[in-house]
Amino acid sequence: MVKVQNNSDPRIYHPGGAVAGHSALVISKGIGLGTRKAIFSRSCYEELEALAFAGYLRSADGKLADLDFWDQRGSEQVFFEFQGQRVAVNMPTRAALESEVLRRFSAGEGFALATVNLDHLVKLAQSPEFLNAYAGQDLVVADGRPIVWLSRLANRPVELMPGSDMVLPLCRLAAAAGVPVALVGSTDEALTDAKTHLEARVPGLDLAWCHAPSGVFDPQGAEADAILENLNSKGIRLCFLALGAPKQESLAHRGRTDAPLVGFASIGAGLDFLGGHQTRAPLWVRRIAMEWLWRAMSSPARMVPRYAKCFAILPGQIWKALRNRP
Questions:
Q1: How far is residue 190's CA from residue 270's CA, in Å, rounded to a whole number?
Q2: What are phi and psi of 182, to 5 degrees?
C-alpha cells in the first residue's frame, strides 16, 4: 500500500495489487516522509512516476525526493550508450511527460524535449556534437517502434510517442497553462497552414510567433542568435522546432542556456504534416508498424539510404538491449 498525501487530499494507492515489499511509504507534496527502504513492483513504479512528475515526490528545493525507490526506478530506464555517454528515455509514458511539462510551465522552467529514433542513434554514434546536444535534452521520449521494441527486449518498456503526434497534446497543455507558443522551422507557407490548423483545433491557444529560418540555417550562427532573442523578448514558453536532426536538437540545447524559460520541442516534420505539406502514412499503415516502408516508397532517394543505416545498427542494439536487462 502506498499512501500519497497532497495537502489535505490523502489518497491510498494499490497499484498492481499488493506492493512487493513490507512497508507503506507516506509521501506529501514537497517532501518525502516515513520509511525509505520499501521495494516496489514495476506497476507501482509507473504510478508513482506519474505522481512524481505531477509534483508530489519533490523535496523543498523542487528536486525529486531522495527516495530509494526513485533511484531504483531511474536505473530501469531504457538507455543507449555512445562513447561512454548514455542517452536515456526518461519519459516512458505520455502521462509522465504531460505531467512534467505542466509542472515546468507552472514553475516557470524551460526544457528541451527530444524524440529518439533509430536515425538519431545512427547520428549519435557518428557525431560527438550531436551526442553533446542530446546530453543537454531534459526530456527524451521514444519516437519509432524499433525504440519501443528495444525497450521491451531490455525489460524497460516505454510508450511510442512520435514527435508528430505530440504537437496537438503539447499545444493543449500550453493553452491550459496560458503560455505563449512559437513555431520555428519549415517554410512560411507551411507555418501559416499549421498555425491555422492548430488555432482551429486548440481553443485558447496563444500562438504568438512563427518563423521560417533560411535554407542555410546554422544553430550556432547569428540567425540562431536572433531566434533565441525573439523567443525571450516575446515571452515564449513553448517553441516547436521543425528543423530536422541534428539542427533542432542543437538549437534546443543552446536555448537551454540562452533562452532558459522556453520549452523546446523538437518535432521534425510535424508542422508540415499538420499543414498538409507532407503526407503522413495512413493510420492503418502506422498501426501495423509499416510507416517506414510508406516513407521509403514515397521518397526512396532520401529515405532508403537512411533506413539502410538504421537496419545496419539493429543487431548491435538488440544485443545491447538483451545484455542490459535488469
A1: 10
A2: -130, 150
Query: Can you tell me the distance from the alpha carbon of 297 to that of 299, in angstroms, rounded to the nearest whole number?
Result: 6
Cell 507501482 maps to which residue? 44
Sign of CA dihedral 159, 163, 167, 172: positive
Say what the pTM is.
0.77
The span from the CA of 75 to the CA of 90, in Å, is 10
Residue type for position 307: Y
Least Cα distance to 12 among 4, 22, 21, 24 occurs for 4
Angle at 279 between CA 275 and CA 284, to 5 degrees: 120
10-residue block means of pLDDT along the chain (326 residues)? 36 34 32 31 42 40 40 69 94 97 97 97 97 96 96 96 95 98 96 96 98 96 98 98 97 98 95 82 83 83 90 96 92
Q: Where do the structural domains in the chain lie, given as residue ranges? A: 2-74, 79-275
